[in-house]
Amino acid sequence: MYIAHDKRPVELKTLTDLFSTRIGASFLKSRALKALLPELKDAHHIGLTWKEIWEALKECGYVGSYRQFAAMIRKLALPDQTSRRFTKNLTPPFVEKEKPKPVAQIGATTSGHKEKPEWQIQREQEMARLDREAELNRQREAQLQPKKVFKPSVFVGRSED
Amino acid sequence: MSAALGMKPKRVVFPIAGKGGVGKTTVMATLAEWYASTAYTAELFDMDPDNKAEGCFKALFAKAHKLPALESWTYDRLLGISLESSADVILADLGAAQGHRMIPWFRDFYKVMQESGLDLRWTALGVVDADIASARSVIEWGSELQNTVDYVIVHNHFQDGVASSWENPKLEPDVAAFREAFSPVEIRMDARRPDLQQMMRTMNVTLGDVGERKTNVPQLRAPDMTLRARTYRFRAFSQFTEARKVLLP
Question: Is the predicted pLDDT of residue B3 greater than 90, yes or no?
Answer without folding.
Answer: no
